[in-house]
Amino acid sequence: MKPGYKRILVFLISLIGILLINSFFLNLLSGYIMCLFLIGLLIIFHFFFIFEKNEKRYLSDIIFEVFLFITSFFILYYLLGIIIGLARTPNYFTFHGIFVVLLPLVLYGVLREIFRYNLLCKADKNKLCTILVIVLFIICDLTGNIYYASFKSQYDVVRFIALTILPTLSMNIAYSFISKKVGFIPIIIFHSIMLLFPYIIPIVPNPNEYVISVIQLVVPVLFALRIDRFFKKIKDDHIPRNYRKKKYRGFIIPLLIIIALVYFYSGYFKYYAVAIGSGSMHPKIKKGSIVIINQKDKSYDVGDVIAFNQKEYIIVHRIVKKITINNVNYYYTQGDANKNMDDLVLNDSLIIGKVNYNVPYIGYPTIWLGEM
Do 343 and 216 belong to one domain? Predict the structure, then answer.
């Protein structure tokens, strides 16, 4: 082994040891302290090894490809959200949210990728050093999770592996592969957007933690494969001159459709779209239809078709009786195809809104996917 590799090997093993001690016994490195720790390591690294210049070949083309991949991801992710549900995110645009939550996350990600790139450049083609770099950043990302994790049962261990270790492993292998090929800037852009969007976009899909884990496991790998394939095309000069214009135009319509669907399906705006999964309103509203609910129209009367929550379902039925007691309105509802009235008596606060329109058939994909 060359002397240069021996020095970087000792450096990596020492860092891994420090991080393991911190992860299992101390948990001192978190938030801004972890950022300061990485800054200190970068200073030490520069003193002993000298920084490497970031890879700048084809940088603008690679960054364009990063944004295309992210756009593709958002289109598919929000389509999933329309099926499984959308949720409103807390407001992080406060002093506490920005400086305690968002800023440390971004700063850590930037410092980590700069440090990763320089370590990988020094590791060069040495496989052991490259593996140790990946291990180093896996432990670095897991440092707080390991300290607070519970391993009291086999289920706890399996859950920790599935939800935490595997996504972290996937991300660090993919980022290390990309870093060696195209440098740290594309990774910083990709990671920052993917990390921050649940905090800064007010409406996001609401999958369970296992679906999130699968997404975090798969997406970095797909991103690495996309960058590798595009990088090879650039090197082989297989990219047409009008490539960017064609790609840009191809994403406009799907993106606008997704924005419109999120607007209607989220339930946070004036109009709310709901897929009808039963035939209780036949023939006026058939199964598989999409109904548009006006949430601002609160003038309900007998004959109106309204939407209301019943446990975890949204029911769309017609008002068949209305009574007023002490200035409070009470509504009795019934499906047009049902023989009896609904058991639930509604007041104004329980009603989502009034159905204004219905579009037949286009709700079937949502129903089929929801029943899988």
Answer: no
CA distances from 151 to 21, 140, 161 (A): 18, 20, 11
Among 265, 283, 299, the domain-final residue is: 265
Are 37 and 87 in a shared domain?
yes
Whether 212 and 71 map to the same domain: the answer is yes
Contacts of 154 (CB under 8 A, 6+ apart): none
Instruction: Tell me how far apart the terminal alpha carbons of the chain are, to the nearest angstrom.
Output: 55
Kindly report, residue by residue over 316-351, the tens digit of the pLDDT.
999 999 999 988 899 999 999 999 999 889 998 889
Write the pLDDT tens digit of every residue in 177-206.
999 988 999 999 999 999 999 999 988 998
**What value, to the nearest 5°, has the Cα angle with vertex 356 and ends 352 and 361?**
100
User: Which range of residues forms the domain containing residue 260?
Assistant: 3-265
Read off the CATH number of the domain in which 330 is found. 2.10.109.10
Q: Are 161 and 281 members of one domain?
A: no
> Do the strands 203-205 and 328-334 form a parallel or antiparallel pair, or are they unpaired?
unpaired
* Residue 220 and residue 174 in contact, taking contact as beta carbons nearer than 8 Å: yes
Domain count, the chain: 2
The reported pTM is 0.82
Residue 91's pLDDT is 85
